[in-house]
Each structure stands twice: as C-alpha cells, then as structure tokens.
C-alpha cells in the first residue's frame, strides 16, 4: 500500500556524511524535510541542493530540519557538501532501505535504458512523525520554495 498523507512516516536510523546516526525518532518535535535525489554532483541535484541551501535559514526559522538522501557514500557526500557549502546533512542509503521504505527507489528509464535508481521525491514529516505532504518527481529548482510555503 502506498504511503499517504496522515500515515506514520517510516522510521529510519541511518548514517550521515559524518558517520553520525540520524533517526526519525531523534527528530520528534521538529518538521523534517526528507528529500530523495539521484546522485551527488549532477546538474539537477546541484540545483535542488543549492535551492535548499539558499533557503536554509527560512527552514530553520520554521523549526524544520532538511535531510538529503541518495545512494552515495560518505566521501561523495562530503565532497558535495564542501563544493556547494551545504548547511544540512546528507544521509547514506547505499543499501536502498531508506529510499525503498519511502517508495523512492525503483525502475527508471533514461534515453531508452532501464536501470534501478532514486526518484526525486520529498516527504514533509510533521513534528509527531506523520507524513504531512508528499511531493513526487519534483522539479529541482523551484521545489524547495514549494516545501517552504507548505510549512506552518
């Protein structure tokens, strides 16, 4: 059954780029912007990450934590963070468990080829751990502004 608004968000406990464990439970009381993106340091992902970066202070003012998720490892995430001066954590999902739990990993098609990968989706999770909004197959650049406008 597909995830829906109002559902309890799937719990997770994964490592970030610093090797620290980040869990949904530890973020209770805050809004969580969990955004899934295909790959560090690619054009669309750069635009999306930089748009979250450029609006980071506004997210913080609204008691929101921004977390990016891809299949890249810590070394790749750290290079990405350093290159674009990203002020938020990137979660490591090399085993695809987190992206699978959030229905953001699956078959993709590009230029006639099929492959498995992450779909650019975002989940807005309320302070009680429930899904407040689901954004599917988003456009990288304007998307963070849409999420920000949905925060109370």
UniProtKB/TrEMBL annotation:
Gene Ontology MF terms: thioredoxin peroxidase activity
InterPro entries according to UniProt: AhpC/TSA (IPR000866), Peroxiredoxin_AhpC-typ (IPR024706), Peroxiredoxin_BCP/PrxQ (IPR050924), Thioredoxin-like_sf (IPR036249), Thioredoxin_domain (IPR013766)
Residues of the active site: 45
Alphabetized Pfam families for the sequence: AhpC-TSA
EC number: 1.11.1.24
This protein's UniProt keywords: Antioxidant, Disulfide bond, Oxidoreductase, Peroxidase, Redox-active center
Thioredoxin domain ranges (all copies): 3-152
First-tier enzyme category under EC: oxidoreductase
Gene3D superfamilies from the UniProt entry: Glutaredoxin
Domain of life: Bacteria
GO BP field: cell redox homeostasis; cellular response to oxidative stress
GO cellular component, one term: cytoplasm
Enzymatic reactions: a hydroperoxide + [thioredoxin]-dithiol = an alcohol + [thioredoxin]-disulfide + H2O
Quaternary data: Monomer.
Function: Thiol-specific peroxidase that catalyzes the reduction of hydrogen peroxide and organic hydroperoxides to water and alcohols, respectively. Plays a role in cell protection against oxidative stress by detoxifying peroxides and as sensor of hydrogen peroxide-mediated signaling events.
Family membership: Belongs to the peroxiredoxin family. BCP/PrxQ subfamily.
PANTHER family: AHPC_TSA FAMILY PROTEIN, THIOREDOXIN-DEPENDENT PEROXIDE REDUCTASE
Protein name per Swiss-Prot or TrEMBL: thioredoxin-dependent peroxiredoxin
Protein species of origin: Romeriopsis navalis LEGE 11480
Name of the coding gene: bcp
């Amino acid at each position: 059954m597909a995830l829906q608004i109002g559902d309890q968000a799937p719990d997770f406990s994964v490592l970030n780029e610093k090797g620290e464990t980040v869990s949904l439970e530890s973020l209770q009381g805050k809004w969580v912007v969990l955004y899934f993106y295909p790959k560090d340091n690619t054009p669309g992902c750069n635009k999306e990450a930089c748009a979250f970066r450029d609006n980071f202070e506004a997210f913080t003012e609204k008691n929101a934590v921004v977390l990016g998720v891809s299949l890249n490892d810590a070394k790749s995430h750290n290079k990405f963070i350093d290159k674009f001066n990203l002020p938020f954590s990137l979660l490591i999902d090399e085993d695809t468990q987190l992206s699978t739990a959030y229905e953001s990993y699956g078959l993709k098609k590009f230029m006639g080829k099929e492959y498995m990968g992450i779909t650019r989706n975002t989940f807005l999770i309320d302070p009680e751990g429930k899904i407040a909004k689901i954004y599917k197959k988003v456009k990288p650049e304007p998307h963070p502004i849409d999420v920000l406008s949905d925060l109370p």
